[in-house]
Design a protein that fits this description.
The structure holds two protein chains of two kinds. Chain A is α/β, with parallel strands linked by helices. Helices cover about 30% and strands about 25% of the residues of chain A. Chain A has eleven helices and 16 strands. In chain A, the strands form three sheets. A seven-stranded parallel β-sheet of chain A has the order 5-9-4-1-2-3-10, sandwiched between helices. In chain A, helix 5 crosses helix 6. By secondary structure, chain B is of the alpha/beta class. Chain B is built from seven helices and 13 strands. Chain B has a nine-stranded mixed β-sheet, with helices on both faces. Chain B has a two-stranded antiparallel ribbon with strand order 2-3. In chain B, strand 7 and strand 8 form a beta hairpin. The chains are: A alpha/beta, B alpha/beta. Chains A and B meet through helix 5, helix 6, strand 5, strand 7 and strand 8 of A and helix 3, helix 4, strand 7, strand 8 and strand 9 of B.
Chain lengths: ~375, ~250
């Protein structure tokens, strides 16, 4: 709710000291909304208004960004704007424009933004913040957001709030700690809340018939000089026809029990039969059975699909952190006391090298 | 050339401990619980020591902020090969990454390192922020989530391969630079007993946040800590046919 940042005791405080308890809460709520409509704050902040910094691939917004928009709407503020930074971002801006509830889409294009180097994106966000004075700035808690947002918070001299799973109100949020084994309710005392949002905790905002205004911005100054200090060299990204891991309905994950990169093929085969995304435990990635972008876990990707197959994965705390919000979990493991069976809805104790091909074949023949 | 490397380490509940939430919901149980150096910080210390062993760095200074127990963590860093350590001592709970970074910035201003290496995230609060904040406050470039690092002698540039959502990317940064490490960067060494003994003689310089002029009271307060929604064990199925039947019954496939 309203707090002292606006330069005086809140109306709610004043009312609650004068009224009988039974009347306090209902009157306070009514007065609060009256306050929103009529009183200007003493500081130059607007009432609650948010900026969502979009993550995209120059074609469309990521699912995480759409989930972040939902989190922004949950703040119930005056306005939600979007900032799209990149090289040629017209289609991304056009998509953002269509999300119902977005007021303005700020677009800034520069070759310096093309590879999403955090140092080069930061100035533009800070500049827009200084111009528009949002109370909340949000981004998805993806690799992109995690890399970038602490910088933004630092330059605004506030504490960033990482990986929120729930909006309690404008200054209170819930976030996982200790690999999701505990959920902390945190309260920010800062005047600007800089937040990254866990994509699996919020529904994706629908892209339908919104008609936000598009506002073009000049790129921030000083980028040529900055890019002398930090230069993007190259990237190696896995090109795949399979669904994207963090937004797939079904995920098939393999662990160290696969024993080799060649063996990992049985995971891919099952995934393709189910039209699923492929994931992996840290151990499998460390052992070189598959690439790092498949890693699901506390320090990898967080997924919450309808159906998650954990194959040859023991179920270490750190892996569970990345998938325990899946709707249905199936575990296939040779060890009947593997911790994964503690969270699996369906567990099959058996040799994955027999079970998985059999599962794939039977699913294929049912389809045929 | 001889670079000076500042490396940070945090004392956290050991990664293998199954944490429990306190009944009064004020936090997580840490009494009588095994504490260790944050795993990602082990990679950071290892990388720093490797730079010194490779003749690229001349000195490795370890840093930790926290209560007196953090000196155990610093002794581990010293036993792994750091030359000396700085302990910013405070009993304040839930010190935020912003405050840690501000303390680090003050240390950087006196120590003048060329490279600051941190772990990419601490496994207790899972914030993954301190390195990026420090980079922004110092105006130094950052390369985060490193899985490979290339720093050549007599070069003022560093190349880092970092893990991103789609795979890997390579950035090049000029010194001085802030780096954060992922687990795949290296294999941290165990401190050998002789090195542990030697480490007892290495200096730990103790300061307070007040000495550095930094207010570490958290602007992000923890109001309460609760258990996550629990997940019960389900049922075991005997074979693939049963599994398929169960999944079809609930409409999962």
């Amino acid at each position: 709710g309203i707090n002292a940042e606006y330069g005086g005791p809140s109306v709610r405080t004043m009312i609650s000291t004068r009224l009988a308890p039974s009347l306090r809460s209902s009157v306070a709520v009514q007065s609060q909304s009256f306050l929103y409509r009529s009183q200007r704050p003493l500081s130059s902040h607007r009432f609650l208004s948010s900026l969502v910094v979009a993550e995209h691939d120059h074609k469309s917004l990521t699912g995480g960004t759409l989930a972040t928009l939902t989190a922004a709407f949950a703040l119930k503020g005056e306005a939600v704007d979007v900032l799209v930074l990149g090289k040629d971002v017209q289609s991304v801006a056009a998509q953002a424009q269509k999300v119902n509830g977005v007021k303005r889409v700020f677009v800034s294009s520069s070759p310096h933004y093309e590879q999403f180097v955090a140092d080069l994106l930061t100035p533009s966000i800070v500049q827009l913040q200084n111009q528009e004075k949002y109370t909340h700035i949000l981004a998805p808690a993806s690799n992109f957001g995690k890399n970038l947002f602490p910088r933004v918070a630092a330059l605004l001299d506030v504490s960033a709030i990482s990986d929120i799973v729930q909006v309690v109100d404008g200054s209170q949020f819930k976030r996982p700690i200790y690999a999701g084994n505990a959920i902390a309710t945190v309260k920010s005392l800062d005047p600007i809340k800089v937040i990254t949002v866990r994509g699996t905790s919020f529904d994706k905002a629908p892209v339908s018939n919104g008609s936000a205004e598009i506002v073009n911005l000049q790129p921030a100054s000083g980028l040529d000089e900055l890019s002398g200090k930090i230069t993007w060299v190259s990237k190696e990204v896995t090109k795949s026809e399979r669904p994207e891991l963090t937004s797939a309905n079904i995920v098939v994950s393999g662990g160290r029990a696969l024993k080799s990169a060649e063996n990992f093929k049985i995971i891919y085969d099952l995934a393709d039969q189910l039209k699923a995304a492929v994931g992996a435990s840290r151990a499998a990635v460390d052992a070189g059975y598959c690439s790092n972008d498949l890693q699901v876990g506390q320090t990898g990707k967080i997924v919450a699909p309808q159906l998650y197959f954990a194959i040859g994965i023991s179920g270490a705390i750190q892996h569970l952190a990345g998938m325990k919000d899946s709707k249905v979990i199936v575990a296939i493991n040779k060890a009947e006391d593997a911790p994964i069976f503690q969270v699996a809805d369906y567990g099959l104790v058996g040799d994955l090298f027999n079970v998985v091909p059999e599962l794939k074949e039977k699913l294929a023949s049912k389809k045929a | 050339m001889s670079l000076k490397v500042l490396v940070t380490c945090k004392r956290v509940v050991d990664y293998a401990v199954k944490v429990r939430v306190k009944p009064d919901k004020s936090g997580v149980v840490t009494e009588n619980v095994k504490m260790s150096m944050n795993p990602f910080d082990e990679n950071a210390v290892e990388e720093a020591v490797k730079l010194r062993e490779g003749g690229i760095a001349k000195e490795v200074v370890a840093f930790s902020l926290g209560p007196k127990g953090n000196q155990d963590t610093l002794r581990t860093a010293l036993a792994m090969g750091a030359d000396r350590a700085i302990h910013v001592e405070t009993d304040v709970q839930n010190v935020q990454p912003l405050a840690v970074a501000k303390c680090l910035k003050k240390i950087v201003e006196t120590e003048k390192p060329d490279v600051v290496i941190l772990g990419k995230q601490a496994i207790d609060d899972d914030s993954a922020q301190t390195g990026q904040i420090l980079s922004a406050l110092l105006g130094w470039p950052q390369i985060t989530f490193l899985s490979a690092l290339e720093l050549k002698k007599d070069s003022n540039k560093v190349k880092g391969v970092r893990e991103i959502d789609g795979g890997l990317e390579t950035l090049e940064a000029s010194l001085p630079v802030v780096l954060t490490c992922d687990l795949r960067l290296n294999v941290p060494r165990y401190a050998t007993l002789p090195n542990i003994m030697k480490a007892k003689k290495k200096p730990i310089d103790v300061k307070t946040p007040a000495d550095l002029g930094v207010d570490v009271d958290p602007k992000l307060q923890v109001l309460s800590v609760e258990e996550p929604p629990s997940r019960q064990a389900g049922k075991k199925v005997e074979n693939v046919d049963q599994l398929i039947a169960e999944l079809q019954k609930i409409g999962a496939i």
